[in-house]
């Protein structure tokens, strides 16, 4: 049975006299910093010289310093910069200040699990990984609730690593919803797998291919967009509220029958075999080595894939249709 911690299991007083350094102020960084600040904790934000995020953080009432200054001053250092930047940030600006009594924290286990960052044995190394994008995490916190999170302990030099991590989890609001005990290995491998086969890679490929099949068959691109992309949110919201059963309860009998009888023809044993191969590539480090090399070599392949996907017809159709949907929050394309 999984171990899940809640507010009553976390003692915020353990970190009330400590200085917490948040390295990065992107989607996750801003949510961590502001939630901790609103919880009455002492927060510093560490950014590189010339960062465009400095003005945003200062406007929110946060103190901003360089990464090295924050690493030296902070008792707890949470790295929420992009995975691909963390190794160099740590080596250049954090590692020199790692000493006994400090806690090094992560919101994703990639760099610890794949040994891109190797902290000294005298520091605590822990993880609180909120299971939501940062903007959602902040929104839910300000509404008085929280998003679930994951807790992992890589090193417990102080004997208080778990208690301090849980206090941090309470500070960002995760213990309001529940914090699941896991490991750096499990969090990293399941997170990458979910992103690649379902949440991002799987769903975008399914949507794009369904769009192409309809358009190739002569249906209007706009109609195809509504059917295979726009309505996806309605279905996902039902999943979120009550699982697969609630979605099936909420749709028509025709749709439910199509689900049972046709869905397994789309995602079949061949697809599952590919999922197993992808999981193996995550477990044995193949994906990590590929992604690290891609970044070390200048991201040429990644940049080309990003460009190609941005030019897919579904994106142009979507921009036009969303432009006429006044109820949608306006986002920069």
Short description:
This protein has 333 residues and is of the alpha/beta class.
Radius of gyration over all CA atoms, rounded? 22 Å
Quote the distance from N terminus to C terminus.
44 Å
Unreliable runs, pLDDT <50, ≥5 residues? none
> Strand-and-helix sequence, N→C?
EEHEHEHEHEHEHEHHEHHHHHHHHH
SS content category: alpha/beta
* Order of neighbouring strands in the sheet with most strands: 1-9-8-7-6-5-2-3-4
The beta-strand count equals: 9
> Approximately what portion of the residues adopt beta-strand conformation?
5-15%
Output mean pLDDT: 96
What is the percent of helical residues? 55-70%
Coarse morphology: globular
Described by strand count, sense and barrel closure, the largest sheet is:
9 strands, mixed
Task: Give the helix tally.
Answer: 17
Structure explained in plain terms:
- With 333 residues, the protein is of the alpha/beta class.
- Helices cover 56% and strands 13% of the residues.
- A 9-stranded mixed sheet has the order 1-9-8-7-6-5-2-3-4.
- Helix 3 packs across helix 4 and helix 9 packs antiparallel against helix 14.
- The protein starts with a strand and ends in an 11-residue tail after the last helix.
């Amino acid at each position: 049975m999984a171990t899940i911690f809640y507010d009553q299991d976390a003692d915020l007083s353990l970190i009330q006299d400590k200085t917490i350094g948040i390295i990065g102020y992107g989607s996750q960084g801003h949510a961590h910093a502001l939630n901790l600040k609103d919880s009455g904790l002492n927060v510093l934000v560490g950014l590189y010289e010339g960062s465009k995020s400095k003005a945003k953080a200062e406007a929110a009432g946060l103190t901003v310093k360089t990464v090295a200054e924050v690493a030296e001053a902070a008792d707890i250092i949470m790295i929420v910069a992009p995975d691909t930047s963390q190794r160099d940030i740590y080596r250049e600006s954090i590692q020199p200040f790692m000493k006994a009594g400090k806690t090094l924290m992560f919101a994703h286990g990639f760099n610890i699990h794949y040994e891109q960052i190797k902290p000294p044995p005298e520091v605590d190394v822990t993880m609180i990984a909120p299971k939501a994008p940062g903007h959602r995490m902040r929104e839910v916190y300000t509404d008085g609730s929280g998003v679930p999170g994951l807790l992992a302990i890589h090193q417990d030099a102080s004997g208080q690593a778990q208690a301090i991590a849980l206090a941090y989890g309470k500070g960002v609001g995760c213990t309001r919803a529940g914090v699941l005990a896991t490991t750096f290995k499990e969090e990293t491998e399941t997170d990458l797998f979910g992103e690649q086969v379902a949440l991002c890679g799987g769903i975008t490929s399914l949507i794009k291919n369904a769009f192409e099949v309809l358009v190739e068959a002569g249906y209007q691109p706009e109609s195809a967009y509504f059917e295979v992309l726009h309505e996806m949110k309605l279905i996902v919201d039902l999943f979120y509220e009550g699982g697969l059963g609630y979605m099936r309860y909420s749709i028509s009998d025709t749709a439910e029958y199509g689900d049972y009888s046709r869905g397994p023809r789309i995602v079949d044993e061949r697809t599952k075999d590919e999922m197993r191969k992808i999981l193996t590539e995550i477990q044995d480090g193949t994906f990590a080595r590929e992604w690290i090399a891609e970044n070390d070599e200048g991201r040429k392949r990644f940049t080309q894939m990003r460009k190609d996907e941005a030019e897919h017809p579904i994106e142009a159709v979507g921009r036009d249709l969303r432009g006429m949907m006044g109820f949608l929050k306006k986002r920069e394309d």
